Amino acid sequence: MSFKIVVLAKQVPDTRNVGKDAMKADGTVNRAALPAIFNPEDLNALEFALQVKDKIEGAEVIILTMGPYRAAEIIREAMYRGADKGYLITDRKFAGSDTLATSYAISLAVKKLGSFNLLVAGRQAIDGDTAQVGPQTAEKLGIPQIAYAEKLIEVNKEEITIKRRIERGVETVSAKYPIAVTVHGSADSCRPRNAKKLMQFKHSRTLTELKNEERENAELYKSRPYLMIEEWSVADIKADVEALGLSGSPTKVKTIENVVFQAKESKSLGDSNQEVEDLMIELIDGHIIG
Ligand SMILES: Cc1cc2nc3c(=O)[nH]c(=O)nc-3n(C[C@H](O)[C@H](O)[C@H](O)COP(=O)(O)OP(=O)(O)OC[C@H]3O[C@@H](n4cnc5c(N)ncnc54)[C@H](O)[C@@H]3O)c2cc1C
Predict the structure, then answer these.
(1) How much distance in Å is there from the Cα of 37 to the middle of ligand 1?
(2) pTM of the predicted model, to two decimals?
(3) How many Å lie between the centroid of ligand 1 and the Cα of residue 128?
(4) Which of 97, 121, 150, 219 has its CA 20 to 30 A from that of 179?
(5) Could you tell me which residue, 271 or 27, shows the higher pLDDT?
(6) Rounded to the nearest whole angstrom, what is the distance from the C-alpha of residue 132 to the centroid of ligand 1?
(7) Ligand 1 within 6 A of 95 CB?
(8) How far is ligand 1, taken at its centre, from the CA of residue 228, in Å?
């Protein structure tokens, strides 16, 4: 009996190192100016999935990402670390999609993969920062979910036991399949690339990439079909266009505030407890924390 693990991973602009040209004049992220990276908590999600695969014979890890054609890079990265294959959901008609429209599209792609046992997502993406897509996708698939997973305790083909982070501590929960899990950044970090996997998958490409690279060696992809990364359009996942893009997005962006910290807002502290305490009181009084 096969055991299918689907991992949702997002390619995001590296908003941790924003320079002066990171934001456009209209306050939106200048994605071209920022390096595109594997969403950090999705690497924890990938590691979680690979730990399940290590424990269940015949288990398969499939990466699913929705994004522009260059998001195929994170599918390759995941395969270098142990994922078996990946699918890129890409179409201009997705532009303007908020989290509801995004999770709708992702849920249709998961359905297209057929039956599965485990759906694993990161807790949160560092660009939208809503932590909504994982739980929303589970809802659209009509399956239960365990959020903020921190550690895989036990797993077999019947059920899974997980330690998860809750507001004031941790909780251990067990569940039968199918189940969705969102993984917290405090979980194990992802294993590094495997040299053999790197050699095996370094030529893996989507059709769009092959066209852009004007690659001729069709023979290679005919003889090794696993090197083809499938691209799925709106039509491929049979999505209703009205439920995508701005028309499918109830989130209306009212204003976008461009917050760039100036040096004058920083404060240097000595190492006395009193100074730390005074700062804490100042931050609490200022409603900045607490
Ligand atoms: C009105 C509006 C228009 C927008 N237009 C665009 C646009 O044109 N282009 C654009 O890129 N963004 C756009 N966004 C932002 C986009 O909606 C969110 O970034 C996206 O829905 C994911 O939400 P999030 O970043 O909060 O992720 P979270 O909900 O924090 O992500 C949680 C987890 O879900 C999974 N996940 C999230 N997104 C994806 C994905 N794309 N593929 C696979 N797994 C995923 C990952 O595992 C991730 O860790 C728009 C948002 C709004 C409100």
Answers:
(1) 14
(2) 0.88
(3) 6
(4) 97
(5) 271
(6) 9
(7) yes
(8) 25
Segment (H or E) for 273: helix 273-285
Mapped onto helix, strand or coil, the DSSP state of residue 66 is strand
Domains of the chain: 3-248 (3.40.50.620)
Asked if 138 contacts 150 with a C-beta cutoff of 8 angstroms, the reply is no
Query: Which residue CA neighbors atom 43 of ligand 1 most closely?
Result: 65
143-182, pLDDT tens digit by residue?
Answer: 999 999 999 999 999 999 999 999 889 999 999 999 999 9
The CB of 42 under 6 Å from ligand 1? The reply is yes
Determine if ligand 1 sits within 6 Å of the CB of residue 15. Answer: no
Q: Copy the structure tokens of residue 137.
A: 């996708």
**At 229, which helix (H) or strand (E)?**
none
Q: Are 246 and 253 in contact (CB under 8 A)?
A: no
Q: Whose CA is nearest to atom 24 of ligand 1?
A: 128
Q: In degrees, to the nearest 5, what angle opens at C-alpha 98 toward C-alphas 96 and 100?
A: 135
Of the pLDDT bands very low, low, confident and very high (cuts 50, 70, 90), residue 96 is confident
For the segment 273-288, the average pLDDT, to the nearest whole number, is: 87
Please give the average per-residue pLDDT across 60-78, as a whole number: 97
Q: What is the pLDDT of residue 28?
A: 58
Q: How far apart are CA 148 and CA 170, in angstroms?
A: 10
